[in-house]
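Contributing new records

If you add data, match the layout below exactly. Sequence lines come first and carry their own label; structure lines follow with theirs. Keep one chain per record. Anything else will be rejected by the validation script.
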Amino acid sequence: MTETQHFSGKRLLLVEDDYFIARDTARLLTAEGAEVVGPASNVARALELIDAHQIDAAVLDVHLGSEMVFPVAEVLAARGVPHVFATGYDQAAIPAQHANVKRCEKPVEASALAKALFG
């Protein structure tokens, strides 16, 4: 199984506030066989989507306008859902409780996301 085949049949939550990045990432994930849930551009919408859908994994932008994505990461971690931060921020911007979450530099590549999410 190739790294990107890990997406096949999976529901991936996409949390990204930049329209163009969200569109491109959704297209990338869909092309790799994922069902994209979202994108959500803020924490409240992301939490709504988590409650409304079975999520297999998530791709999270760290900075969402005036808020940070960490409340979403906390809910996903509590539910045991693999997630990755897709960001331009370096590791120092990630709070200690999320230090174990993998980071992928933007622009993200399918193979990097697959490796970060599914090993």
